[in-house]
């Protein structure tokens, strides 16, 4: 498998070299808003330590990231009154992965509302507002 590239965009976010709308972090994981949201409140959860995806992650990295995924899934359900939550994760280019630092997509869903198509930049103010809703919901946890 290809080696981890420390200059991938999420590694740069972790080092604070590029901005991100952060909604949650603990010692081992970080959650921030996806800049091309496919549903309102679409966010990403990543481990703070390097791995490309599920194929090279350690059990400890997976355990930490899934614990945060659950926390954020519960928070978006509250924040958006979501009927459901979609969790997506892709492995290697052939598996649909574009950024090669392990990440899980957390997508709040409403009954009967489809995901928006991928690749469309979100509105910054909307994303900031959704991030605030998620931070507030986390405080109710
Ligand atoms: P994938 O690797 O296929 O799971 O897709 C990568 C995801 O990262 C896409 O949903 C992008 O919209 C998202 N993304 C790419 N660059 C950034 C960034 N700088 N900040 C937040 N999300 C990003």
Overview of the molecule:
With 141 residues, this protein is an alpha+beta fold. The protein has a single domain, classed as HIT family, subunit A, CATH 3.30.428. It has three helices and five strands; from the N terminus they run αβββαββα. It has a five-stranded antiparallel beta sheet. Strand 1 (22-25) and strand 2 form a beta hairpin. The chain is globular. Adenosine monophosphate (AMP) binds at residues 9, 20, 34-36, 44, 90, 96-99, 103.
Topology:
Blueprint: H1 9-14, E1 22-25, E2 29-33, E3 43-47, H2 59-80, E4 84-88, E5 104-109, H3 124-139
Helix pairs in contact: 2-3
The structure holds adenosine monophosphate.
The set of bound ligands, ions and cofactors reads: adenosine monophosphate
At the first level of CATH, the class is Alpha Beta
CATH topology: HIT family, subunit A
Radius of gyration equals 14 Å
User: How would the global form be characterised?
Assistant: globular
Please provide the ordered H/E string of secondary-structure elements: HEEEHEEH
Q: CATH homologous superfamily?
A: HIT-like
Q: Distance between termini?
A: 39 Å
Strand arrangement in the largest pleated sheet: 1-2-3-5-4
Residue stretches low in confidence (pLDDT < 50, at least 5 long) are none
CATH architecture call: 2-Layer Sandwich
Beta content: 15-25%
Percentage of residues in helical conformation: 25-40%
Summarize this entry quickly.
The chain has one domain: HIT family, subunit A (2-Layer Sandwich). The chain is built from three helices and five strands; from the N terminus they run αβββαββα.
